[in-house]
Amino acid sequence: MAEEHEPAPAVLSAGLLLTPAKPANAYEETMQRLLQSIRLGLIAPGERLPPERELAQLLQVSRATLREALGSLADAGWIVVRRGRYGGAFAAEASEDVPRAAPGAVDGLEDLLALRAVLEVGGAGRAAASELSATDRERLWQAYEDCRSATASGYRVADSRLHLLVAELIGSATLVPLVADVRLRLNELLDGIPLLAPNIAHSDEQHRAIVGAILRGNAEEARAAMAEHLEGTEALLRGFYA
Question: How do the pLDDT tens digits run along the chain, 242 residues long?
Fold first, then answer.
């Protein structure tokens, strides 16, 4: 009788990166972990993702959040959802239709994200500590409203204007060009990934928290709200590009 052998253990577990997401940016971090697991081959092309209940437990997110993320990944071509007895979510086979990072597109990504955090988190706190005129307060709220009501085609511009206005309110002639340069480089990366409706809705909530803290003059809340907002964007960019 031929000797039976146990299957060779996988070199890396498919669940290696499927660790709990932070509640503040649950959707974005769920996207990051799933994308990185697929892009790094921990979930191979054609391989079935863990069942929804198990996946939600691994990531410690609600099933509603998980379904939003899976829906976004399906829309973007990274997974295929099949129905029926043997259905589930499967990593898509390699295809030209799936967006991939262009060579050199992510050079200096972590440097860019670190610089943005230093400039914009500190800038939000400084804006909250500034004496804002009635006109400036109105401009800030209007920029938030413009971003909240923007169409998909106009969202990046409205988002950029809101972030630049926060920097402008400080009154530093040096800060605005720095934030603008970072934003241009950031938008080049953001334009390479799908505009995700759950992320936009979440960003709108975070924008409101940032603007509200600045208008109340609460520097600590403004810094915390901006930091949380940037971390969500960072999670998406790392998922798609890192």
Answer: 445 444 444 445 566 667 888 888 999 999 999 998 888 778 889 999 999 999 999 999 999 999 999 999 999 899 999 988 778 999 998 654 555 555 555 678 999 999 999 999 999 999 999 999 999 999 999 999 999 999 999 999 999 999 999 999 999 989 999 999 999 999 989 988 889 999 999 999 999 999 999 999 999 999 999 999 999 999 999 999 87
Q: Who contacts 187 (Cβ-Cβ below 8 Å, separation ≥6)? A: 156, 160
Question: Residue 154 contacts by C-beta under 8 Å, 6 or more apart in sequence?
Answer: none
61 CB-near residues (< 8 Å, 6+ apart): 21, 26, 27, 30
> What element of type H or E holds 54?
helix 52-59
Q: How far apart are CA 227 and CA 210, in angstroms?
A: 10
* Phi/psi at 48 (5° precision): -80, 135
Specify which residues 82 forms β-bridges with: 88
Distance CA 54, CA 117 (A): 34
Q: Which helix or strand (DSSP H or E) is residue 155 part of?
A: helix 155-168
* N-term to C-term CA, the chain: 49
Q: Write down the pTM of the prediction.
A: 0.83
17 vs 8: CA distance, rounded Å: 21
DSSP string, 174-239: THHHHHHHHHHHHHHHHTTS---HHHHHHHHHHHHHHHHHHHHT-HHHHHHHHHHHHHHHHHHHHH
